[in-house]
Design brief:
Elements: H1 2-29, H2 34-49, H3 60-70, H4 76-88, H5 102-137, H6 142-156, H7 159-170, H8 194-232, H9 235-242, H10 247-266, H11 279-284, H12 290-299, H13 303-331
Helix pairs in contact: 1-13, 2-3, 5-8, 5-13, 6-8, 7-8, 8-10, 9-10, 10-13, 12-13
């Protein structure tokens, strides 16, 4: 197992280089950029002042200085090698938009996405595993059919669409005014006591977390149910029952453990939750997370932030896949990786 983990870790290096290179090439092919945006701002300012031809607002020397400032006076291959060398020294460059180190910009949004990701992840597994087992045992019953319809409705409805509906019906839209409209805290949050702050934060988190977990919740529930039903029909379950074990004992001791093997693969996503912020959900509830940061960076052509997010999310995704393989061996010791 150690040699397998070592090989996987070594393979991450060329994989990361390949991912970053492809993304860098694609970004270079996009129209516009920080240089064009700054030139456009200068031309707009000149046009507003009047008397100056907007197309001649900047001289060729000034344009060259702007290109040098952003590093675009060098060929693309050299810019990529410079970026890669800086990344090896944990330097992701400076954000063109925020004029701050990229790591500072990402880390400022990191706690929000991390909180929402882990909370929705934990709640989904906490509910979906027992719910999936219950549905497998009660397969075909009226309660199973009814709950499947409700869960499937949540699966097919996008989180952002559900968020809009919840705001309309529960957040002072057209009906009830039970929850806040958006944000994470109230305006007078700093004046609250400690327990009031906790209540206020929890009050703001109910609707966003519900929207974050609805899609994963439905998928995990059906995955657990189908996996458990498959295990319940195997020969070892009939053998366990024939030897005198109760159905509950056979379910918990044997079927449940084997049914958790497919669920273990989903645990790899725990490493990418902080970078997989739901953009539209964050927009609906006005949450400053990683998804919104990535979108704004793409719109403003903030290449350093975009590359930083892609690099870190790719790294965490590969670590998550390795973590998933290790969990395989924990859940089922029969699985060996050489």
């Amino acid at each position: 197992m150690r040699s397998y983990i070592l090989r996987r870790l070594l393979l991450m290096v060329p994989t990361l280089i390949g991912i970053s290179l492809v993304c860098f090439i694609l970004i270079q092919m996009l129209p516009g950029g920080p240089v064009e945006e700054m030139i456009s701002r200068a031309q707009s300012a000149a046009a507003m002042k009047g008397g100056v031809d907007a197309s001649k607002a900047l001289s060729p020397d000034q344009i060259a200085q702007i290109q040098a400032y952003f590093g675009f006076d060098q060929p693309a291959w050299k810019r990529y090698l410079t970026w890669l060398w800086n990344v090896l020294h944990l330097d992701f460059g400076t954000s063109y938009t925020y004029e701050l180190p990229v790591w500072d910009v990402i880390s400022s949004r990191f706690p929000v996405s991390l909180f929402f990701g882990f909370t929705s992840f934990f709640l989904s597994y906490l509910v979906c595993i027992p719910l999936g087992l219950w549905k497998a045992v009660k397969h075909g019953s009226k309660l199973d059919t009814l709950s499947s319809g409700v869960i499937f409705s949540g699966y097919v409805m996008p989180g952002y669409a559900l968020g809009i509906l919840l705001i309309i019906f529960l957040a002072g839209g057209s009906y009830l005014d039970i929850f806040p409209l958006g944000g994470l805290t109230s305006e007078d949050y700093e004046d609250f006591t400690f327990f009031q702050k906790l209540l206020d934060l929890g009050h703001h988190l109910v609707l966003p977390i519900f929207c974050y977990m609805i899609g994963e919740f439905a998928f995990l529930t059906f995955l657990m149910k189908n996996s458990a039903m498959e295990e319940l029909g195997r020969d070892y379950m009939r053998t366990a029952l024939a030897k005198g074990l109760s159905f509950k004992q056979a379910l918990v001791r044997h079927a449940m453990r084997n049914a958790l093997i497919p669920i273990a693969t989903r645990l790899s996503e725990i490493c990418t939750l902080m970078f997989a912020g739901a953009l539209l959900i964050e927009t609906v509830f006005d949450i400053e997370g990683m998804g919104l940061l990535y979108y704004n960076s793409m719109v403003h052509r903030d290449y350093n932030v975009v590359m930083g997010i892609i690099f870190l999310s790719s790294l965490m995704a590969m670590i998550g896949r390795l973590f998933s393989d290790i969990l395989y061996t924990v859940v089922d010791p029969r699985i060996k990786f050489n």
